[in-house]
């Protein structure tokens, strides 16, 4: 029986060893899923248990023995819970199936050894006890004791027979077999563990190699490895792209074989191979496969074998073409900023200065060394409002740019204006890192703006507020007066006869008179009041905070008194008086325009009342002002509406009582206003400049009619046309007259131009030139209204006059006033002495005519002979005169 037990053990050990071989051959330890591996292992051990249990030795009828408990216990020890549980279930199932007297004990000798093996495994791992021969023998002996103990549960008549039969074998040989089998399994386990570790190491190595390769290929730098002969051992993807070759086409070849700029690379490699330095770096321009120039920054270093011998070169090249371009771009920008005419400042977020350019030094007077590290407050002058700085920081802290103006202070203390554009410099994380300020010195621009603003609001000649500023101030005064319940007076001032001064003494003298007048006006008013120049010789005085209109009168009288003393200009004493009109808010108007208009009306009333006085505005005066405005409005367009026409007043030869010519006189018959006297509308036409256009109309009408009369009635007919001062300032005057003379075929002997004495005495170069050119055309020149001007009679010799016309104011009283008669007589004698013909104007009686005949006056015109008549009536008179002459 002992021999059978031993043989059974040997058979079982063979099965177990076979299990180990099968386990290794299947490579279950290589499976990644632990649960799959454990399940398959458990099934294999279960089948092995089947094999062991199906080859037992029979101890006695119905009692079989095998080495199942050795197998199951070692399974628990070496393979763990899951494989052991599967194997136990399979083995127990088979034993139950076999039946017999030892069915339950047979099942127990499977379960308890399995549990014992698992517990032994647990405590060995927990207490780090190695599975050596002693540990395995102890486990085997313990298992055999458990099995013998379970035999006590066999039927009573069998238990001791079984124990005595198997005890020696299982207590001596089974522990040894368990130990040997355990050592074999441990060795296999160690080998499998080593294989697993090797496998994992290889996997890790391959993974890390792949990661390294992926990392190297992901780098934009060109990485290559060459041996000492210059042949490539490897390269990354970037180099492959540069060479337009796959790695297998590169490895083993040289730069020359690959046509990769061999001379350049070969020279560099030879230099580095000969260098004792382990690393060399350089920059070189190369051309890629697309024939594009690239600047490479390359680092080359030796690599060595385990013995330290140099095996070749490792090269890392970086394309720095864009970097170099960016550096050059930054350098260009830096130079541009440094040479910029505007000031550039970079500060930290707290305002500390980090950079300034050269223009900053020039503008502020501070050097870079003086301001770097200083706060930008170093430039503050204290003249910029705090609200502007608050607005600035509010915008900057919100990440927005700000633009505005500062009054800063230079190093020498001088205040200057700067226009600044300040913006935050934001990093990729949207954090403000710096502030950039671009500033321009606008001091001169500000001064120019102030000058322009001053010119826009102040008169350039007198430096008084102009119309615009004066009206603005008046508007402000009225708003204040409305609030304080005070009154405001507007004084409209106009210099009497200033136009004659301009005409006789010239505009330069007139301008000096205006300046002196402005100074006198300023001396007469309070600081709170305003004196301004409206234009020409018109001034305005604004008096505020009045309680009663009568308070304006003392000021007006003071102004009049101031101008009753003569003005000293260019060594001359000139007496010019003022006419003043007064309008008071709110009685005379509630708006600036209304008050000015009413004060103007009052001023015209002062002139009408003899000048050199002042008057308050009344509603009656307003009618006269409205009349002037209405006339001016209607005069525009009067020509287009054919409301203007020309009458002719015959000029009589006093010796023959024959009509020898006529004077063309303008008349206006308005469709709305009726007949308007020339004394009303001609000054308006002169003032507005309409007289130039109207004068051309009179010339055309007069010359056209003269052409008809010369051709059909009186070849010697002489037409006279008046020219106003404003017409002489027209540069086209002479050309227009020449063109009309040519157009109508009028010679100079039939054409006379009448010029007032005031125009002649102005001594303007344009007047002198025009008279000279008209004389060259053969046109006769007549001095009109002689005796009403201020100039010396000696000026008559300076111009080519043909005729002198005595003003009607001297003719009207010659029959009753001997003095006037003597004055007229002297004028006629003087004119004849100068070789001039004389025409007397305004002859209204026979007695006047006879007196003029007696004084040898050649010609006359006036109502005694004929009032101004139409061209048709004059033509009738000429026809009658011709017929009368034919009958004689």
| Percentage of residues in helical conformation | 40-55%
Measure the end-to-end span: 203 Å
CATH superfamily of the largest domain: EAL domain
Q: Give the strand order of the largest sheet, numbering strands 1, 2, ... along the chain.
A: 20-21-23-24-25-26-27-28
Low confidence ranges: none
Features of the shown structure:
888 residues; alpha+beta; Arp2/3 complex 21 kDa subunit ARPC3; Beta-Lactamase; 5 domains; eight-stranded mixed β-barrel; five-stranded antiparallel beta sheet; 28 strands
Write the layout of secondary structure elements.
Layout: H1 2-26, H2 34-53, E1 57-60, E2 63-65, H3 68-79, H4 81-98, H5 103-126, H6 133-150, H7 156-218, E3 222-227, E4 232-235, H8 237-243, H9 247-250, H10 255-258, H11 262-274, E5 279-287, E6 293-304, E7 310-319, H12 321-339, E8 343-348, E9 353-356, H13 358-364, H14 368-371, H15 386-397, E10 402-409, E11 415-426, E12 432-441, H16 443-457, H17 467-484, E13 487-495, H18 498-505, H19 507-523, E14 530-535, E15 538-546, H20 552-562, E16 567-569, E17 572-574, E18 578-585, H21 592-608, E19 614-616, H22 619-635, E20 644-653, E21 658-670, E22 674-676, H23 678-688, H24 690-712, E23 718-723, H25 725-728, H26 733-744, E24 751-756, H27 757-761, H28 765-776, E25 780-786, E26 803-806, H29 808-811, H30 818-833, E27 837-840, H31 846-854, E28 859-860, H32 871-887
Parallel strand pairs: 18-19, 21-23, 23-24, 24-25, 25-26, 26-27, 27-28
Antiparallel strand pairs: 1-2, 3-4, 3-7, 5-6, 6-7, 8-9, 8-12, 10-11, 11-12, 13-15, 13-18, 14-15, 16-17, 20-21, 20-28, 21-22
């Amino acid at each position: 029986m002992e021999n059978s037990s031993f043989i059974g053990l040997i058979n079982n050990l063979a099965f177990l060893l076979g299990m180990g071989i099968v386990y290794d051959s299947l490579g279950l330890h290589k499976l990644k899923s632990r649960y799959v591996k454990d399940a398959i292992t458990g099934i294999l051990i279960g089948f092995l248990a089947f094999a062991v249990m199906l080859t037992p030795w029979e101890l006695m009828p119905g009692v079989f023995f095998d080495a199942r408990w050795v197998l199951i216990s070692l399974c628990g020890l070496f393979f763990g819970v899951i494989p052991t549980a599967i194997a136990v279930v399979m083995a127990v199932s088979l034993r139950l199936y076999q039946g017999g007297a030892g069915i339950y004990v047979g099942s127990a000798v499977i379960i308890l050894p399995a549990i014992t093996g698992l517990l032994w495994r647990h405590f060995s791992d927990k207490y780090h006890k190695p599975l050596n021969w002693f540990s395995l023998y102890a486990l085997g002996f313990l298992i055999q004791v458990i099995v013998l103990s379970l035999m006590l549960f066999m039927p009573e008549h069998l238990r001791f027979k079984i124990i005595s039969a198997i005890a020696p074998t299982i207590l001596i040989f089974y522990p040894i077999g368990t130990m040997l089998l355990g050592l074999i399994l441990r060795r296999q386990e160690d080998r499998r563990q080593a294989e697993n570790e090797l496998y994992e190491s290889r996997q890790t190595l391959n993974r890390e190699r792949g990661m390294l390769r992926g990392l190297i290929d992901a780098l934009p730098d060109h990485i290559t490895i060459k041996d000492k002969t210059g042949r490539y051992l490897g390269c990354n993807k970037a180099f492959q792209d540069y060479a337009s070759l796959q790695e297998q086409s590169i490895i083993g070849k040289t730069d020359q074989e690959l046509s990769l700029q061999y001379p350049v690379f070969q020279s560099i490699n030879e230099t580095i191979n000969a260098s004792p330095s382990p690393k060399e770096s350089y920059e070189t321009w190369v051309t890629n496969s697309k024939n594009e120039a690239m600047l490479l920054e390359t680092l080359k270093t030796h690599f060595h074998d385990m013995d330290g011998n140099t095996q070749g070169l490792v090269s890392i090249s970086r394309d720095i073409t864009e970097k170099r371009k960016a550096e050059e771009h930054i350098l260009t920008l830096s130079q541009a900023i440094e040479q910029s005419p505007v000031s550039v400042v970079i500060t930290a977020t707290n305002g500390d200065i980090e950079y300034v350019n050269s223009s900053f030094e020039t503008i502020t007077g501070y050097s870079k060394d003086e301001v770097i590290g200083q706060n930008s407050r170093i430039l503050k002058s204290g003249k910029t409002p705090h609200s502007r700085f608050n607005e600035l920081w509010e915008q900057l802290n919100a990440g927005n740019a700000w633009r505005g103006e500062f009054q800063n202070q230079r190093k020498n203390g001088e205040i200057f204006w700067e226009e600044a554009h300040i913006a935050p410099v934001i990093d990729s994380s949207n954090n403000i890192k710096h502030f950039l300020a671009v500033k321009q010195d606008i001091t001169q621009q500000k001064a120019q703006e102030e000058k322009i603003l001053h010119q826009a609001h102040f008169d350039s000649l007198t430096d008084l507020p102009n119309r615009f500023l004066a009206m603005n101030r008046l508007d402000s005064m009225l708003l204040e007066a409305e609030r304080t319940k005070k009154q405001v007076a507007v004084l409209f001032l106009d210099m009497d006869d200033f136009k004659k001064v301009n005409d006789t003494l010239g505009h330069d003298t007139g301008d000096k008179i205006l300046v002196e007048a402005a100074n006198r006006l300023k001396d007469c008013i309070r600081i709170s009041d305003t004196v301004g120049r409206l234009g020409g010789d018109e001034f305005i005085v604004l008096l505020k905070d009045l309680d009663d209109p009568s308070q304006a009168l003392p000021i007006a009288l003071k102004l009049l008194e101031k101008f009753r003393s003569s003005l000293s200009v260019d060594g001359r004493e000139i007496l010019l008086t003022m006419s003043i009109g007064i309008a008071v808010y709110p009685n005379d108007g509630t708006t600036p325009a209304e008050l000015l208009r009413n004060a103007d009306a009052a001023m015209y009333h002062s002139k009408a009342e003899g000048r050199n006085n002042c008057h308050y505005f009344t509603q009656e005066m307003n009618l006269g002002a409205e009349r002037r405005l209405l006339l001016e409005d209607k005069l525009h367009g009067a020509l287009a509406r054919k409301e203007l026409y020309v009458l002719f007043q015959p000029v009589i030869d006093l010796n023959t009582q024959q009509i020898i010519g006529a004077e063309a006189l303008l008349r206006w018959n308005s469709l709305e206003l009726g007949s308007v006297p020339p004394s009303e509308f001609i000054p308006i036409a002169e003032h507005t400049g309409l007289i130039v256009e109207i004068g051309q109309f009179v010339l055309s009408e007069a010359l056209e009619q003269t052409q008809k009369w010369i051709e059909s009635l009186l070849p010697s007919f002489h037409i006279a046309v008046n020219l106003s001062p404003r017409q002489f300032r027209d540069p086209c005057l002479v050309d227009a007259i020449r063109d009309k003379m040519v157009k109508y075929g009028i010679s100079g002997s039939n054409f006379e131009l009448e010029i007032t004495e005031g125009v002649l005495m102005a001594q303007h170069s344009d007047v002198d030139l025009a008279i000279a050119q008209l004389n060259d055309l053969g046109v006769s020149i007549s001095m009109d209204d002689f005796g009403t001007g201020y100039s010396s009679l000696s000026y008559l010799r300076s111009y080519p006059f043909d005729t002198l016309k005595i003003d009607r104011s001297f003719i009207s009283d010659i029959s009753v006033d001997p003095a006037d008669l003597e004055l007229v007589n002297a004028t006629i004698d003087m004119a004849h002495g100068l070789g001039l013909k004389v025409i007397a104007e305004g002859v209204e009686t026979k007695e006047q005519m006879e007196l003029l005949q007696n004084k040898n006056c050649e010609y006359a015109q006036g109502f005694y002979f004929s009032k101004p008549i139409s061209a048709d009536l004059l033509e009738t008179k000429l026809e009658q005169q011709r017929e009368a002459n034919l009958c004689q």
